[in-house]
Amino acid sequence: xxxxxxxxxxxxxxxxxxxxxxxxxxxxxxxxxxxxxxxxxxxxxxxxxxxxxxxxxxxxxxxxxxxxxxxxxxxxxxxxxxxxxxxxxxxxxxxxxxxxxxxxxxxxxxxxxxxxxxxxxxxxxxxxxxxxxxxxxxxxxxxxxxxxxxxxxxxxxxxxxxxxxxxxxxxxxxxxxxxxxxxxxxxxx
Length: 189
Prior knowledge:
The chain is an alpha/beta fold.
């Protein structure tokens, strides 16, 4: 347990890991059509010579109204970044240590609830009602997920899926004691 909750925090490393996670989750949606994607412009607007006008090959050139966009945003842009696995794990342990140091982690035995009302009373019992709480389960439990999903600012995650960004999005962490063993087995560097 000391291996997990007594790691000296390094804010720069945590910030680097969080920025990598945020940029990797970013989706490229902005897209403009270039001259090959806009409608029309199949034939030459007028003949090359003899009209006294400038030569043109297509009415969908970027200099024409209704033409394509030059250097606009494209969906091919890739925002993915990466960071070594050991650095990710180290950042996760640093965030857990910082939360533990500030007494923001509440440990619990196996969480067994079936309904949202039971989950609300469980959170009240642990003095976490109306607070931002992340529930960390040792293994997936559908009833706990369903009971918690309708409560505002309450999230549920399996211990094997933990990451620094998710931990930082919630103020308090409600963790099953079995989840500590899972974290120790998977994430201890």
